[in-house]
Amino acid sequence: MPQAASGFPIREVVIVGGGYGALAAALALHKVGIPTLVLERAPTTRQEGFAWVALNNAWRAFEALGVADDIRKDHMPQTRINYADSHQVVYRSLDVQTVGPRKGLQRNEIRVIRRLAAPTAMADLLPEGTVHYGCKVVDVTTTPSGAEVELDGGQKLQAKLVIAGDGVHSRSAAKYHKATLRKAPVGSWRSLVELDCEQQGKPESTFYSGPNIRAGTFPCAFDATRKKMLWFFFVATVMSDQEMAGYDSHEKHVKGIRKHTRGWEAPHLEKCVSAAVPGGIQLSRIYERPVKAGEPWFEGCLTGVGDCAHATRPDLMQGGAMAVEDGVELGVFFREAMEEAGKPFGELTPAQIAAVLRKYETARSHRVAQIIAASTKTGNMFRRAGFLPRWLMRLVLAWLYQPFAFLDHTLWAPHGQLCPPLIGKHKDLASA
Ligand SMILES: Cc1cc2nc3c(=O)[nH]c(=O)nc-3n(C[C@H](O)[C@H](O)[C@H](O)COP(=O)(O)OP(=O)(O)OC[C@H]3O[C@@H](n4cnc5c(N)ncnc54)[C@H](O)[C@@H]3O)c2cc1C
């Protein structure tokens, strides 16, 4: 493989970060014949937060990338989702299979997946030499011919296209993004714990609402040999920076969760909290970057995927899914552009590449702007409703708002196929 003076293989596309968005973009571009170089600052594949809820659209995106079955096999489907108050009194219950049918969907697929499952599956399908760990990018600058990426060792890489997938605190986004990052007044604890369990059965997921707080418990996977069920739980509550900084040990995290859920009668949540092992609880500050529908995000031959481009609150469980959608859509837009120009990526001009990126950003902005706004509204509504007397809260949440409306946001499919573009040899073969 030809190497640049920097020691990296020579690639026209550099992707910053190795999370969901970055790896989905790398895999999607690989599928349309564009090799990439992925630079991840961590020493290995890593993901914060233990697990996440992957809804219908995440599965459509994983299918487009060819990794869905690999991820599915280790994670059980959710069968029922309950909405409850802080005393575990259920005011709405959703049968995941039969709710709807939602427009355009035969059935719902919801699974809680381990954080590392998707990045590992995606990285495994990329050609050797694509993903480089331990590579921290300190700066990205757009140039007339593309963009320049600087690493913390001082190395500089020139690329025709740079895709920033370096998360909420992206340096490229801080420098170039047109929308401003906002800190939400919410902190969220997350953990994955094991509970004894004789049989897999059909364990149910539950969302809890209380004053200024939401929590949830979800089954993730069953270990038949060890007779253990893996449960994911989260507790998200309004929290100042000062309070958050005080939670600096396992004992303090557990104490903090118990302080915020004092007076609750939610035995299953309490069981999950008690089962957390030291180092097994993570607390994250929530951010959002409210992009505007119809407005592109970056400039020149630089774009972004995932949280870097459109961080959102997790109340609709969409951040990870949107990051993977981004990668798929970027691949489809480049396939279409190569077909339209009748040229492979290497022959596209910087102006043509920039035009594809603005088209991708504009198209995506309509979808993500709506999800960001709806996530904020959903979280606020649930937390505020928690202040109502319990009987009124149940009534309000059950009848004035349809909690299952979150499934409408999962009605997504890529706007085209991820396959080699019909140019040159491929076009001849297609018309033969
Ligand atoms: C509490 C909470 C709950 C959530 N629950 C859900 C859920 O249920 N469902 C869902 O779909 N989403 C959920 N999300 C959102 C989801 O976690 C994010 O949207 C998703 O991780 C975004 O992926 P990403 O690839 O954009 O960024 P990240 O996953 O943050 O990946 C960024 C990568 O870039 C690397 N990086 C950063 N800086 C540099 C640098 N300078 N150089 C090189 N590499 C760098 C990082 O190490 C990291 O690997 C939740 C988020 C939170 C906080």
TrEMBL record:
Keywords: Monooxygenase, Oxidoreductase. Gene3D superfamilies: FAD/NAD(P)-binding domain (3.50.50.60). The keyword Transferase does not apply. Residues 12-343 form the FAD-binding domain. The keyword Zinc-finger does not apply. It holds the Pfam family FAD_binding_3. InterPro entries: FAD-bd (IPR002938), FAD/NAD-bd_sf (IPR036188), MOase (IPR044560). It comes from the Eukaryota. GO terms for molecular function: FAD binding; monooxygenase activity. Belongs to the 3-hydroxybenzoate 6-hydroxylase family. This is FAD-binding domain-containing protein. It comes from Coccomyxa viridis.
